[in-house]
User: Which sequence fits this backbone?
């Protein structure tokens, strides 16, 4: 999904990695950054992004906003100091081809996202975390590249949750893949992009089969 490309670019930028030439170079969260804008609209976007994670994380995270147009770079709204990046929802339906709820992620989870976008093998070397404390509007639980629900791809709408990635996806085999089994479950189980979904609120009831 195109919006995930944007998220990955922001994660990579805020973690101090090299971006592609299309987006140019960005400063890392710990390096000198351009002064953040102080308008009311900017502050609102910052507050929206910060709702994705616990305050002790989002208060010191780099805040990146969506580009004004496809192909343009992300805009840094605020520099951070803790290695996390948060971004608000996409500002309008025109730039929101798929649900893009607020997310905060660390640099290790960014490795998984980056490999997923590029369809390459993840090289996750340490546990990575991401937060979506406002939940999401839905994604396939089985197909990492599904764009819309089908009769077989287990489309699931997740409540507020955090996500965890580990160096070896097989380390998650003890967890179920059923999001309605109660407690954490593995999304995209059996693929190299498997990660643990940990709900912090009750799951919506599964739709009755037609």
Assistant:
């Amino acid at each position: 999904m195109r919006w995930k490309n944007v998220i990955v670019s922001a994660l990579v930028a805020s973690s101090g990695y090299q971006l592609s030439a299309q987006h140019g170079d960005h400063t890392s969260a710990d390096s000198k950054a351009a002064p953040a804008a102080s308008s009311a609209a900017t502050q609102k976007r910052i507050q929206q992004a910060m709702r994705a994670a616990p305050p002790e994380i989002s208060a010191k995270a780099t805040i990146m906003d969506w580009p004004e147009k496809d192909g343009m770079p992300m805009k840094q709204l605020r520099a951070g100091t803790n290695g996390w990046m948060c971004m608000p929802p996409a500002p309008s339906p025109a730039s929101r081809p798929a649900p893009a709820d607020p997310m905060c992620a660390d640099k290790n989870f960014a490795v998984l996202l980056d490999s997923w976008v590029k369809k390459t093998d993840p090289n996750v070397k340490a546990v990575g975390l991401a937060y979506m404390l406002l939940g999401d509007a839905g994604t396939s639980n089985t197909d990492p590249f599904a764009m819309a629900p089908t009769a077989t791809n287990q489309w699931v709408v997740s409540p507020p949750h955090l996500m965890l990635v580990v160096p070896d996806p097989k380390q998650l085999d003890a967890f179920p893949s059923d999001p309605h089994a109660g407690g954490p479950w593995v999304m995209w189980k059996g693929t190299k992009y498997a990660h643990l979904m940990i709900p912090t609120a009750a799951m919506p009831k599964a739709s009755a089969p037609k």
Remarks:
- The beta strands are 62-65, 75-78, 85-87, 103-105, 128-132, 139-140, 155-156, 161-165, 185-187, 195-199.
- The longest helix spans residues 2-14.
